[in-house]
Amino acid sequence: MKKAVLSTILMAVVALTVVAEETIVLDGSTTVGPIAKAFAEYFMAMHSDVNVTVSESGSGNGAKSLINGTCDVANMSRPMKSSEFSAAAEKGIQPVAHVVALDGLPILVHPGNPVSELTLEQVRDIYLGNISNWKQVGGPDKKIVVISRDTNSGTYETFEKMVMAKKKICEKAEYVGSNGAIRQRVQSTPAAIGYAGLGFVDKTVKALKINGVYPSGATVQTGEYPIARPLFMYTNGYPKLGSPVHRFVTIHLSEDGQEIVEEIGFVPVTAY
Amino acid sequence: MRLKTRRLLDRAFSGMGLIAIGVMALALVVILTPIISKGTGAFVFRSTIEHRKVMSDHWGRGNADRVEKAKGQAAAARKPVYDLLSAFESELDTMPRAERKPYKKPLRDLQKALQNLLGPAPGARTPVLIRQQYGATRWDRAKIKLDEVLYTEEWDYSNPEVLGVLVKTPRVEQFCGTKLEPLFAYVEENSKPMMQPRWTFYWQFLFDTSKDSHIFGGIGPEVLGTVYLTLGAMIFAIPMGVIAAIYLCEYAREGRVISFLRICISTLAGVPSIVFGLFGLAFFLNTIHISDSKSVLAGALTLSLLILPTVIRASEEAILAVPRTYKEAALSLGAGRWHTVMTVILPAALPGILTGIVISMGRAAGETAPIIFTAAVSVGRPLLPSQVLSNPTPALPWNIYNLCTEHEAVDEIRHVQFGMVFTLVAVVLLLNVVAIIMRAKISKKLRG
Lengths: 272, 448
Fold this sequence. Notes:
The structure holds two protein chains of two kinds. Chain A has helices at 2-17, 33-46, 59-67, 82-90, 120-128, 154-162, 179-188, 217-222, 244-249, 255-264; strands at 22-28, 50-54, 73-76, 95-104, 107-109, 117-118, 145-149, 174-176, 192-195, 206-207, 209-210, 228-236, 267-268. By secondary structure, chain A is α/β, with parallel strands linked by helices. Chain A has two domains: 2-102 and 231-264, Periplasmic binding protein-like II (D-Maltodextrin-Binding Protein, domain 2); 106-222, 3-Layer(aba) Sandwich (D-Maltodextrin-Binding Protein, domain 2), CATH 3.40.190.10. In chain A, 51% of the residues are buried. Chain B is mainly alpha-helical. Chain B is 67% helix and 5% strand. Chain B contains 17 helices and six strands. In chain B, α1 crosses α17. The longest helix of chain B is centred in the first third of the chain and has 39 residues, at 2-40. At the A-B interface, α1, β1, α2, β2 and α7 of A face α16 of B.
């Protein structure tokens, strides 16, 4: 009995001292999540000695993790704020941005909603609460259910800046924690309106034309679609050339990386 | 008369009790039935040839000859489809431009729908994303994809007063009078030879890693992560909890300090789990930097704090339930306090302590909030024991949440979600059954 216990302990010690393989830890935006997960899959298929982990907890958390040194790459759907930069500088962290893709912010409604076009001002008025019924924008007589991302989200901050012009979203808005959750709320609520990353649009929801422009890869890239933004991966300093992190944050520059970005539904940075 | 009232009251009370139990049982049935029926669907289902292709390409499973044969049969059944497509394309080339144009988008949509069902066309470039290298792997999904090939869905907004209605029209109407017209009838009739559905018991679902963020493969890393986290939590919580309980019952002198400590423990048991999660992030990761990133270690420590009050409480109750006479007998024979605790009190209290431990194990396995910030990730490899100190891990409770809300293809992977829920419920149930059996066995042994 004692021998068995001893040998188990010995085995455990041996197992613990085996050299651990390298890891890349990603944290942050749920919008960048699908890209990061696909890159991780692609990367791990080529480098079997590297473990890439991805968490999706929101851009704000990604920034915090990078500042606290608990992740290697922070996925963010908005640029870092000056407060975050100074917090990073205090801890000796130097955030370097890698733009991995472009993204539009489609305004989503239930596919049964006959409204197919809004102006930016109308969207703002809906989120301000000035327009509260679909009737007011040419739809059926139904009260609008306003759905927004939580305030920790980069998508929320993009929306706040580009659509709301820094005005406060009305109190009756419902806040949800991820892009996927927005889509689920909108596809199950006929009178809902929401917004999410381009990669989350499928046939269960309808993206609206904004100011007459439909959100698509082409209109985002040319800047015609009014609500568009880059998607970032932040690292602490530029990663050491040739290191796993360096290889990871340059995947989007390769042809395969661009195909992945496009197939997932986002817009690759390089156009050719 | 009074006797009558009393009886009536008695009956009313037992009736209420029965109703309460009935409601509980009904709730259990309502909750568990879909979990079990849909959860088993992750393991036992009708797989298509595409599933077997994934299995043989990525895991080298299946009899190579038989897979090749089935692949050949499927390819033969699919050939007329691709022949019709290329015939139509050459027909398009002969058309004048104005006639050709209206077919452009319908053709692209059809090709997309076919790709979702059958995978990339033979000879086409292999896509980088694994999810696009294969068609529908499950027959239930294949039938939905088949429907999308045969019908187009349009929303009819003709009445602006109400919400639009979904109108399904056969896709064949878009291609009337062209060489593509027979394709639809062919696909509908030959869906089985094209997909080769077969009942499969995919038990490896429990151990396989996932491919392309859970679209293919199993839930191995999640199961392993849950096991690591639970065991890790127990390693910390059991010694601390049991020792604390012994101290509180046997060594400490009753007084203000001890009753204050007891209040603290009870309060700790009532603290919401998310608070533990945030504490774990703030303390273990950001203050004492127990690991460079989230890790199994940080998660296990946080979970152990969460279940510590339960373990202490259960152990205390068990120790207090040991008859006083046992202790007195031991002491009268000259045993010291330490000796009495180790040889008399602990063995007698063991069934109670173990029950408490196993029940809190179930709790640790199922908790989500404490591991969100300390240990859990959406995607990662299964960890070796040597990596638990530094690496984060996927874990069942978190990944269930993640796959149901955040995943970009939620509807495609319902079976994985149910499979995970089923596995987690099964693990917790199993732990509870183990607790019951263990308790019965040990108390039987103790009785002689």
